[in-house]
Amino acid sequence: MKVIDARELQPPEPFERVVDALSTLGRDEQVLLVLNREPFPLYRFLEQNNYEYKTDAHPDGRVEILIWEKSGG
Asked: How far apart are the C-alpha atoms of 32 and 54, rounded to whole Å?
């Protein structure tokens, strides 16, 4: 699993790092993105580019998005 802790990064760097990580993602691998807020533009990108994701919001304000390629697509 590739982990990107982007809590201290300014836009668009978190998005750029995720796109770079996804471009090298192997089959059955995942990317975990950690942010301080939900990345709604990223969700649209993922949905349009054959990725699935699961978002977990934590009480401390941390948001973790687990991303993987859709199977069969």
From this structure: 10
Other CB atoms within 10 Å distance of the CB of residue 47: 12
- Coil, strand or helix: which one is 15? helix
CA distance 10 to 27: 29
pTM for the structure as a whole? 0.93
What are the structural domains of the chain?
2-69 (3.30.110.40)
Tens of pLDDT, residues 43-73: 999 999 999 999 999 999 999 999 999 986 5
